[in-house]
Specification:
By secondary structure, this protein is mainly α. The chain has a domain of 110 residues. The protein is built from 17 helices and no strands. It starts with a helix and ends in a 6-residue tail after the last helix.
Amino acid sequence: MILFWVVAALLSAGAASLVILGAARAFDHASDPDPTLGIYQRQLSEIDDLADRNLIAPSERKQAHAEAARRLIAAAESPEQAWSSEVGSRRPALILAVLAPVLALGIYMGLGSPGIPDQPFQARISAWKAADPARLEPPQLAAVLKDLTRQRPSDPQAFLYLALAQREAGNPTESVRAARRAVTLSPKDADLWEVLGESLMMEARGEVSDAAQQAFGEALKRNPGAISSRYYLARAEVERGDRAAGLASLKKLSADLPKTDPRQRQLAMAIAEAKDGPARVENAQLEMIRGMVAGLAARLEQSPDDPEGWVRLVRSYAVLGQTADRDRALTQAKARYGSRPDILADLDAAARTERLK
């Protein structure tokens, strides 16, 4: 590592030297006549030549001639900026060129960790595999799952979890790639098609794109009751101008869900938007996020033994500014994991997440 910084310092000094040498060579041509006057004189000749060949109108010739002449006079009246050959004027640049890499190396030696050996990426993945998955950041979890798919290339569930992790890590393109592989391996699984559709929406910045609609349609062929697919296809109807059909689909979906289902709130917003035009929602991506959070809350109601899920739910509510939902989820999670200080710390940190502006 020390060798790397020494080489970097030498390269920086070399680059600075090239700049200074270039400036010195430029000085050798400082006495050459100013080419600006010749340029404008050639412009005047070219304008006359174009006019003589009837390529520009007389009025355009007059305007162009006047502008070029104005610039020629201004250039002729401007004093020339002479180059200085004094060594003293170049001394500060030389000093800075030498000091910059030396100072950077000194700071690194004092504050950095030059003795720590490089950590190969595979070694880091091995360390993440041995850690508690609930403590990993989304990019780390995605790296672990990607390595897992290399070991289990025919496991659709491995690619499903990878798609979800890549989505959490903010990599929609990688999420789509993993979800496509999952549906290729298990094309009859409606849940996989829904994950693909949601990943395609994320890649399209919240828009229910044609590709996403196709994926949701495939999900409905395999499971006509797929909630997310019905919701997003209804929203697509509204977006393309068929408000009546979209509204009917949303109302039917609301009627099919229990009144206590947390997704009813998002459906109510979508129904209001279909009736009255755009509601007070920042954009379609925020609406999609709310729907995903509602889905997470519903899943935790059915399968509550998921500490990572509770942390994500509390953080999501905090980001969305839903303080009542955040506090309720936080209380439920703390009651369940009161004997796990590590999880309690993660929950408190998630609750302090700033609201999305």
